[in-house]
Specification:
about 325 residues, mainly beta, Immunoglobulin-like, six-stranded mixed beta sheet, rod-shaped
Length: about 325
């Protein structure tokens, strides 16, 4: 009887060791951040982000046992339609169940992570260490927005029901059923940016300094929506006595300058010598994000200097924008 009892006990231990269990639980999410991106890229280029934990974590080894009766539902809702910034502008984005665009998740619609191999690919039910469900985000191009921090808080309702334990013969010994809601914060910081068009200045050629004509041109600047800024021109590479100068390869100089609009006020890089966005000749005021603001100028060769030797004279002037 003792020997028989030991045999029966041995069979019982074998059955227990064949069991596999799994369990899911809710937990705090990891915020999703797009980082800091300039306004031009936000408007023109898709930006990616992700969270490593969307609020649901699971352990176990039931990778191959999910059936049509098993599900891991997520319903994502929000009171907003995207990330909202300080002036009320909105940056829309799409949520995905994987790191491609194969499985978009619509807001307010229950999405099941069990089909299509998503749970398998994540490995949530394959091992003893807890693994969390990630989410992937991509912005939608076209948002012309002001600079600032953009945020949205998503509500994620998780609802799961699946076979959580098996014994010999793949018999389901129990189901893990649960539900609950977690919140996920999504952020993106928009920085100021400008798109600048600056044509070269060419005085052509002349035999004497008095022969150079005045050059009238414009600089086009398209800066972030709502941004107030100033534009400066530095003194070039060869300034002397507060005059810009072009230089030849023989180290001779030809003095010239750049003046605001059609006037005689020198356009510089410090203080009042700069030009404000409100001083633009076309579309004055704050930046619009898409439309250009035009700054007219005129450039002249000083006629009160001696005519230097014949040569090609050049200079390089840096334009800077300050917000």
């Amino acid at each position: 009887m003792n020997a028989l009892g030991r045999v029966v006990l041995g069979v019982g231990l074998c059955a227990v060791s064949a069991q596999a269990w799994s369990a899911c639980s809710l937990g705090a999410t990891v915020p999703a951040s797009f980082g800091t991106i300039n306004s031009t890229l936000v408007r023109t280029t898709v930006q990616p982000a992700s969270t490593t934990n969307a609020g649901l974590s699971c352990t176990g080894s039931l990778l191959s046992l999910l059936t049509s009766n098993d599900h891991f539902y997520a319903t994502i809702t929000s009171t907003r339609t995207g990330m909202v910034g300080p002036t009320g502008d909105v940056i829309p984005y799409t949520i995905y169940a994987n790191n491609t665009t194969n499985f978009p998740i619509s807001r307010g619609t229950r999405f099941d992570f069990a089909p299509n191999g998503i749970i398998d690919a994540l490995g949530l039910l394959n091992g003893t260490s807890p693994k969390s469900v990630p989410l992937y985000l991509r912005t939608v191009v076209g948002a012309n927005v002001a600079a600032g921090v953009y945020t949205e808080t998503l509500s994620i309702f998780w609802d799961w029901n699946y076979c959580s334990g098996i014994g010999l013969g793949n018999i389901c010994l129990g189901r893990d059923i649960g539900s609950g809601t977690q919140t996920l914060t999504v952020t993106l910081t928009v920085s100021n940016d400008c798109q600048i068009t600056t044509p070269n200045i060419s005085f052509a050629s002349a035999p004497v300094v008095a022969g150079f004509a005045t050059v009238n041109q414009s600089i086009n600047i398209a800066c972030t929506k709502g941004s107030n800024y100033t534009v400066g021109l530095d003194d070039g590479q060869n300034v002397s006595a507060e005059r810009r100068r072009m230089k030849s390869t023989a180290n001779n100089y030809l003095a010239y300058d750049i003046f605001k609009s059609a006037g005689t006020v020198r356009w510089g890089s410090v203080g009042a010598a700069r030009r404000a966005s409100s001083d633009a000749n076309v579309n004055p005021g704050a930046g619009t994000g898409t439309g250009s603001q035009v700054f007219n100028y005129n450039a002249k060769v000083y006629t009160d200097q001696a005519t230097p030797p014949a040569a090609t004279y050049t200079d390089s002037v840096i334009l800077d924008v300050q917000f």
